[in-house]
Amino acid sequence: MIRIESVTKRYPDGTVAVDDLTLDIPDGSITVLVGPSGCGKTTTLRMINRMIEPSGGRILLDGQDIAQQPVTALRRSMGYVIQNAGLFQHRTIVDNIATVPRMLGWDRSRARERARELMERVGLDAALAKRYPYQLSGGQQQRVGVARALAADPPVLLMDEPFSAVDPIVRKGLQAELLRIQAELGKTIVFVTHDIDEAIKLGNMIAVMRTGGHLAQFAPPDELLSSPADAFVEDFLGTDRGIRRLSFFTSAGLDVTTTPIVTVDADAAQIAERTLPELPYLLVTDAEGKPLGWAKAEELAAQAADSTGEQPADSTGEQAPDSADGQAPDSADAQAAGSTDAQAADSADAPAAESAERTAAERSPAPAAAAPLLPHGRPFVFGRESLRDALDCAVLSPTGWAVAVDGTGKAVGVTSQETIATAIRGAHARRAAKPDSPDGDAGEPVKALR
Ligand SMILES: Nc1ncnc2c1ncn2[C@@H]1O[C@H](COP(=O)(O)OP(=O)(O)OP(=O)(O)O)[C@@H](O)[C@H]1O
Ligand SMILES: [Mg+2]
Questions:
Q1: pLDDT (tens digit, 9 = 90+) per residue, 308-337?
Q2: What are the φ/ψ torsions at residue 50 (nearest 5 degrees)?
Q3: To pair with 388 at 20 to 30 A between CA atoms, which of 21, 79, 212, 261?
Q4: Regarding beta strands 401-405 and 411-416, do their DSSP bridges make them parallel or antiparallel, or are they unpaired?
């Protein structure tokens, strides 16, 4: 554990960057220092590896005062990653990553072997090994920076705004990569950012700092969102706290039902018995159980009745090329038009929805799929994604019901906004009763899954 004990940093010009800061940074998890520009985050981080010496107080690493430890040994036990990666421009990627092992006396081939192994771990193509930093994108350079910090397998990683200089999509990828690596390696990571969403996404614990190096609150992200300590923290967190907090509640215990789900070849009897009184729609899946879209139960029933009569549903007798192999249309087709357009999805009369329906109907050989289909939107992965994901699916669904799928994309049930609302109230009540336990009937922390 890293213990920051009543630490103050006063620069020679009198600026107090950090003021009497006390913080216990737990082992094996990500602690984020977040706060507005100039609040003392970088100063705090750099005092941990003694790039800056405190003016008062002390910092303990596993109970030992770091001021008493040789600086070089201390720094080698702490990987350091900064914005724009700070790579050595005259060294190749593989040699950049091999820097610390080489300093530790590893021979060149062993150090390079380790570097290549790390390139793979951080998601860098081995073909980049011989390039120089300027021949890489910003996101790739950041990955090299992470690999270099991990090279000598230090127990601690200090990261100062490592992903701030890349665009939002690359940044999302780097954040996911960091969580994946952390799930494997379990380092003690101190991560500095001024982006509260990044803090919430990555942090197991978050220290919100305010100007003058004061600690405003130190709490897990869920607690920060539910109980900000004061108006400053609340303001810093921004809007939608309640909705964002739902990311911390697993969908594992959510009630889903398979009743209103039919396959494309469902007959009239199945359609009748699967139609719920509260839901005038059925979710149509392909033969493998992957969702294709919602159909009005009565239209589906009429279609199934038609197809059992003399007249085939497709009076031309021709089959669309895609259906020649007897496969149901890909679910993407059913979603192709209008799936992101709630307006169109809302009404079966809207032109975009109509054309999606026609496409689905024309391409499918099966009776049920010939009925008009409404897009089902993005389903949520049951048990893996959060109540926030489930709610989002339900809100975007033209029927108000969310579709739950398993890891392979097969439908495992559907659930209404009302049921999700009940689950949210239950999760809140459980969390209030047992604030320290991660929610989840599956007992799985949701953190790594976001
Ligand atoms: N060498 C220095 N001499 C004097 N003041 C300094 C020095 N370095 C930093 N400061 C001041 O200390 C305060 C904290 O700086 P620090 O770099 O720790 O902030 P930060 O939270 O990392 O900000 P940012 O988000 O902009 O990176 C600021 O007011 C800064 O101007
Ligand atoms: Mg800084």
A1: 653 434 433 333 333 333 333 343 333 333
A2: 65, 25
A3: 261
A4: antiparallel
Shared domain for 230 and 289, answered yes or no, is no
Pocket test for ligand 1, best of 9, 19, 33, 39 (most atoms within 8 A of CB): 39
Distance CA 274, CA 286 (A): 16
pTM of the predicted protein model: 0.78
Nearest CA to ligand 1 atom 26: 37
Identify the sign of the CA torsion 131, 132, 135, 140. Answer: positive
Q: Is residue 362 in a domain?
A: yes
DSSP, res 306: H
Q: Is the CB of 41 under 6 A from ligand 1?
A: yes
CATH number for the domain harbouring residue 387 = 3.10.580.10
With respect to residue 448, please indicate whether it lies within any of the assigned structural domains.
no
What span, in angstroms and rounded, lies between the C-alpha atoms of 90 and 17? Answer: 34
Of 415, 74, 31, 54, give the one whose Cα is nearest residue 257. 415
Number of domains composing the chain: 2
Q: Based on the domain organization, do 409 and 281 belong to the same domain?
A: yes
Q: Are 193 and 266 in a shared domain?
A: no
Q: Three-state DSSP class for 319?
A: coil
**CA–CA separation, 114 and 153 (whole Å):** 10
Question: 7, 43, 84: which to mutate for ligand 1, most atoms within 8 A of CB?
Answer: 43
* pLDDT tens-digit map of 254-306: 999 999 999 988 888 899 999 999 999 999 999 999 999 999 998 888 887 77
Look at ligand 1, atom 11, and give the residue with the nearest C-alpha. 17
346 has a pLDDT exceeding 80: no
- Rounded to whole angstroms, the Cα distance separating 423 from 406 reads 19
Task: Please give the angle made by the CA atoms of 201, 202 and 207, to the nearest 5 degrees.
Answer: 100
Q: Are 129 and 97 in contact (CB under 8 A)?
A: no
The CATH number of whichever domain residue 208 belongs to comes to 3.40.50.300
Angle ∠(411,249,259) on CA atoms, nearest 5: 25
Match 């610390």 to its residue by tokens. 100
Q: How many helices (H) and strands (E) does the chain have?
A: 18, 16
* Joined tokens for residue 135: 């021949």
Tokens of 32: 């984020």
- Domain housing 103: 2-247
Domain C-terminal end among 224, 247, 270: 247
* Cα gap 225→240, rounded to integer Å: 9
Ion ligand 2: protein residues whose beta carbon lies under 5 Å? 42
The pLDDT assigned to 104 comes to 86
Q: Could you tell me how far CA 400 lies from the centroid of its own chain?
A: 24
> Residues 270, 237: one domain?
no
